[in-house]
Write a structure and sequence with these properties.
The chain is α+β, with helices and mostly antiparallel strands. Helix content is 38%, strand content 28%. The radius of gyration is 18 Å and the shape is globular.
Length: 287
């Protein structure tokens, strides 16, 4: 059995970019690489069947399944993924699980880390998952700035020169399906226009304060910000805390501590997760 951990990722700003080549497709954007993420274990099977369990429940998990098919076509595996954070809330769990499982499979069949990363990126792009999470995560920096879309070396990811030691993620609503947003042409136009401005501003001033500022501007101008998200950000701002919307989820990231979030948003109406930014390396290990 081989195991791996992969950090999650919050996109604060994203600008979807298409390409005929999946390796060059994805998004430009700004994000936070997290110290919480997805844990995967992989055991080979001799019958060609791929079983995937997400948080103990058997699942289709089509993106992780695509990774297995790309790295080891025709081979069977038992893949178990345990997530530190909720799925479909903008925390990059789909990408993290695909990367962690992909590294385990690559180790099993004698392929490289690069093979695993590229398979995960391709599966995310082709399977309707996050468009930039894989490239941001594998870059290994606290605050990855995706200046050129695609997985490196086809894309380019730079690092803003700061970290966030105390961060609270707050889920305030139901799951948001990425494909439902990215499949709407008018939504995509607004997102691209808002992201272009936000990226220009942040690249000119890549600071902690600017990260929250451009995140708020982007979520508002893109039309992605729901009334509940808007109220949550404002209430946290009112007590002197920074907050922004996690892309794409009914969730917030904030430098307020959990007790402050509970007092402002209501403990019975929010799920919180304490974390920080992270440069932790992604490593597969044999049990």
């Amino acid at each position: 059995m081989i195991s791996a951990f992969c950090p999650g990722h919050v996109s604060c700003v994203f600008q979807p970019m298409t390409s005929f080549d999946a390796m060059s497709a994805g998004s430009r954007g700004i994000g936070i690489r997290l110290d919480k993420g997805a844990h995967a274990t992989v055991e080979p099977r001799d019958d060609g069947i791929v079983n995937i369990f997400l948080d103990g429940v058997q699942s289709v998990a089509h993106i992780t399944r695509m990774v297995a098919e790309k790295l080891a076509p025709g081979m069977g595996f038992d893949i178990r993924i345990t997530n530190d954070l909720p799925v479909s809330q903008g925390f990059g769990m789909s990408a993290a699980g695909a990367i962690a499982a992909g590294l385990c499979i690559a180790e099993t069949v004698g392929k490289t880390r690069s093979d695993a990363f590229m398979a995960a990126h391709s599966a995310e792009v082709m399977g309707g998952g996050g468009l930039g999470d894989v490239s941001a995560i594998v870059a290994g920096s606290d605050i990855p700035v995706r200046t050129v879309p695609g997985i490196p070396p086809f894309g380019r990811v730079e690092n803003a020169d700061f970290r966030i030691s105390k961060l609270t993620l707050a889920v305030i609503g139901d799951e948001m399906r990425t494909e439902s947003v990215l499949g709407d042409q008018e939504s995509m136009r607004r997102i691209r226009d808002a992201a272009m401005t936000a990226m220009d501003v942040f690249i000119a001033d890549p600071t902690y304060e600017c990260l929250f500022s451009v995140s708020n501007r982007f979520s508002s101008e893109s039309g992605l910000e729901s009334p509940a998200i808007r109220r949550g950000i404002q209430r946290l701002n009112d007590i002197g805390r920074n907050a922004g919307m996690c892309m794409l989820g009914n969730s917030l990231f904030t430098d307020a501590d959990e007790k402050e979030v509970w007092s402002v948003l209501g403990r019975g109406h929010v799920r919180t997760f304490r974390c920080s930014s992270s440069r932790k390396e992604i490593i597969a290990r044999r049990a």
